[in-house]
Amino acid sequence: MALLLLASTTSWTVGKHYCMGHLVSVSLFAHAPDCGMDMGDSMGATSQMETEDSCCSDQLIVVEGQDHLTISLNDSILVPQPFLTAIAYSYLVLFEAKVERPLPHEHYPPPLLFKDIHVLDQVFLI
After folding, report:
1. Looking at the domain assignment, is residue 124 inside a domain?
2. What's the domain range around 19?
3. pTM
4. Within a domain: residue 117?
5. Which domain of life is it from (predicted)?
6. Which candidate among 59, 81, 90, 103 keeps its CA 20 to 30 Å from the CA of 73?
C-alpha cells in the first residue's frame, strides 16, 4: 500500500530523443540529451518551416502526481465493511472453545490382564 501511495503521488517525466525516426536516448525525470545533430538550432533557424525539416525531435511525457490527499472517514469505513466483517468473524472463530464429545466408555474399567501379551507374542515397540 505504501508503494502504491508513493507511485500515485509522485510526478513522473520521461524524455525521449529521436534522430531520423530512431530512438536515440531516454531519460527519466528530465529531458533526454540530444545527439548533437540538431541542425535547426545551430544555424539560427527562426522560421517554422526550417524547424519542421529538422532530423531530430524530442518527446516529453509528463505524468502529474497528486499534490493534496484528503482522507475521509466516511468513505474509508463504508467501502471495506464486508471485508472487515469477514476478517473479524474469522479471527473470533479461532478462539472459540471446542466442544468435546462424551466418551461412551469413560466410566468402564479396562479389562484385567493375566499375562503380558507383548512378551508372549514377542512384539516390542522400538
Report:
1. no
2. 11-63
3. 0.40
4. no
5. Bacteria
6. 90
Express each pLDDT in 66-124 by its tens digit: 777 666 666 555 557 788 888 889 888 888 888 888 888 888 888 888 888 888 888 88
Answer yes or no: is 33 within a domain.
yes
In a domain, 123, yes or no: no
**pLDDT digit string (tens) for 29-67?**
877 787 777 555 445 544 444 455 578 888 888 888 877
Backbone φ/ψ region at 96: left (φ over 0), alpha (ψ -120 to 50), beta = beta
As to burial, measured by CB atoms within 10 angstroms (0-12 exposed, 13-18 middle, 19+ buried), residue 34 is middle
Query: What does the block give as the cell for 25?
Result: 536516448
Q: Which residues contact 33 (CB under 8 A, 6 or more apart)?
A: 17, 25, 27
